[in-house]
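Worked Example 4.2. Consider the chain below.
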Amino acid sequence: LNPNVNAFQRKFVNEVRRCDEMERKLRFLEKEIKKAEIPMLDTGDNPEAPAPREMIDLEASFEKLEKELREVNDNAETLKKNYLDLTELKHILRKTQTFFDERETLLETESMSRALIPEDQLAGRPGVHLGFVAGVILRERMPAFERMLWRACRGNVFLRQAEIETPLEDPVTGDYVYKTVFIIFFQGDQLKSRVKKICEGFRASLYPCPETPADRREMAIGVMTRIEDLNTVLSQTQDHRQRVLVAAAKNIKSWFIKVRKIKAIYHTLNMFNLDLTQKCLIAECWIPVADLETIHLALRRGTERSGSSLPPILNRMDVKKVPPTYNRTNKFTNGFQNLVDSYGVATYREVNPAPFTIITFPFLFAVMFGDLGHGVLMTIFAAWMVIRERVLAAKKIESEIWNIFFGGRYIILLMGLFSMYTGLIYNDTFSKSINIFGSSFYVNLSVPEIMAEKEHMLDPKNSYTGTPYPFGLDPVWMISDNKITFFNAYKMKISIIIGVIHMLFGVILGLWNHSYFKRAMNIYCEFIPQIIFLVFLFGYLCLMVFHKWVSYSAQFTGRFSEACAPSILITFINMVLMKSAETTGNECESMMFAGQEGIQKFLVIIALLCVPWMLLAKPFLLRSQNKKRVALLTNLDHNGIDHEDHEISSETHGGGHGGAEEFDFTEVMIHQGIHTIEYVLGSVSHTASYLRLWALSLAHAQLSEVLWSMVMRIGLSATDWTGGIMLWVIFTAWAALTVSILVVMEGLSAFLHTLRLHW
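Applying the procedure from the previous section yields the following structure tokens:
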């Protein structure tokens, strides 16, 4: 309500900054806790937002914790640096002993050579005195360091080095690094200065090293004593730091929630408007009518807890804005609502398709995924997530894939249950059928003839008993040679029937919207022609499917025999093209029933007339209404009558929200033309699109059969004792492929295709 106020000039800017500062301190604590690998306790509690006076206590406690932890970290870093220096000095004293022994040998050799030279020649020669520096450098810098010394000093230095076997901890980063001890012998102050500058450039640490063995031994003893003392102090420091972090880890999750809640409250309060006295905050919000009483109770409870003497006032406002859509969900319906909302949220007070999706979505999925065995696996997984949902939710698993599966656990459960049902209808369990009631087919062959045939062509004319299988498909189709032909015909027709019913239902939902918003023009100019177009073409196609199933049979003779059954696809194409069908035989009729050709022409003509009906009726009616409205307004202006005293209503192209906006006939015509073309072409393409139900169902069944015949059959076909051992290995491979390919990948594919059909 205060868009003109600068963000930095709003009432509660300082409070938001204080919350930001508290969040920064909590992030610092969290980082230190994670670095120490301490588990953070998450009880799943949802604490209430603290009162403003509690905010001061939280700030004080966070400030104290941060200060204490930073002091401990600084002390620990200083102690670790001292420990590193002493450790490096210890290694220098140990490693350089051999270097000094070599130096003594060098000096003795020189003194012996001087003794052999006459005294008159030594009179002008001074004695040689070698200086040295000792230190430690990173191992990877040693080759470059050595080259630089050689070039800068022109070979007038003597470098010895020895590697430190154990890695040393860097006090700043905490990483372990490998280092090397070195000692450099040189002559003269000029070389000494040059060597020290090179050491400084390569960040080598230089340490004092006594020349005499006795002094070195004494220093080494002192260094070891100091290292032991430092170890004791370091362990005590680490214990204290651990205690501080463990105590903070117990509450940090709830602290985060409290700070974020109070920050959100102040952020929201910053959007409120202030009254003239600068003491009262004013806000506007959308509230579900069913929750008004709950809001009143919450405001009353807030007044009591804050100790305020002035209760908040909640007034209901009448506004012309369209409210936002709010669909109340629970843990069961939330997943289905998300599927619908991912395409688009319904306008306020429109029909929400999510409740119907609860049934149609898993059903269409199951039509493509129909397999009793795979459905059982999916149901078991979903049931496990549903039964243990509280435990699994409390674990706060961060994997994105797991959260997607867990969020849609009820969708997966229904998809699994529906897949078990369609699997029973298809009589398909891991590509095998179950003979529960006994087959309704028989084979007129002897046992040797049956054994000689690997596959048998099932002929309903000679092998059918006349009594259908009680539930689902007859199990004998699974082992027949012509099962693909039969399944294709069955599943293709079922897909079209389901698709037309689904689309009809979607169009009928629009009738509820038009009725609720009292958009009579939309009913007469859009809904009725849409229904007629869909029913007269594709509804008639479904009726022909049922008529063919009922009227034609392999056991009938004459014009209703299987040979005389016309192709529905050819019949439908001829119907749209207004062509007469050709006869298929002497006894056969070209039409399925008397008067079919005349009825079909009538249906096509009426369906085609619906196209201009949808395209032209609404724009011309709107133009007529607009002319009447303009004439009425002109008449009122001439008579000097206020427009607000007369209610003037007209349905605009937006659907009946009043005629306040300017009417543009061209825009309305283009808008209506786009909708008409989209519906007419969409009816054809969507009907064909539902054939994916047949295609994916066929693909799933064939993949399952291929996996069984190429993997599982190998283990089952062995006749000796090795087959039992081999079956364990082969079953493992078959089970892994079944779960990964047929359940997970095929399930994801069917899920996406179902989502597309619903959208």
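Residues 52-115 form the longest helix (64 residues). The radius of gyration is 44 Å. Compare this with Example 4.1 before moving on.
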